What does this fold into?
Amino acid sequence: IEGQPTLGNPDAKVSVVEFGDYKCPSCKQWGETIYPQLKADYLDKEDVSFSYINVLFHGQESILASLASESVYEQDPESFWKFHKALYDAQPESQQHDNAWVTVEKLKEIAGETTSVDLAKFEQDLGEESTVLEKVSTDDGLVKENGVQFTPSIMINGVMLEDPFDYEKIQELIEQDL
Ligand code: CA
It folds into this structure.
């Protein structure tokens, strides 16, 4: 999780990692159903951290959204989670998620509303002269290294969950390591 956006103490006893894709409807659903429970039960305390790693399973739009999130994280880390949530909120309802919705204009609009990034630099980071491409490649490497097969994939202290929506299992793994 080094260099990854992390909520809570990065040295916490328990590290929860989400491998997610902004284009993925299940990730949006996870963020709306499981994440709030995790946050209320554990992230507001001190012993559990939460990190997010980009997955690029949906092609060009996944790459674009990942570049945007890395640019925000680099320029204005304090606003990362706000941008992250707003980006998932912008994902259309599941029937339409395959339609193109991650565009440079949309990303700029969201970044303008939720962060204080330099929008010219932000736009540069979405194109060929991006300075954060390496960070997206690092995430892609971690996805391959950890054998991520689907999104979201949730890893708790190195253990990958079979079902990311099994909150009881999430609790069990966390409690066991606390
Ligand atoms: Ca990353």
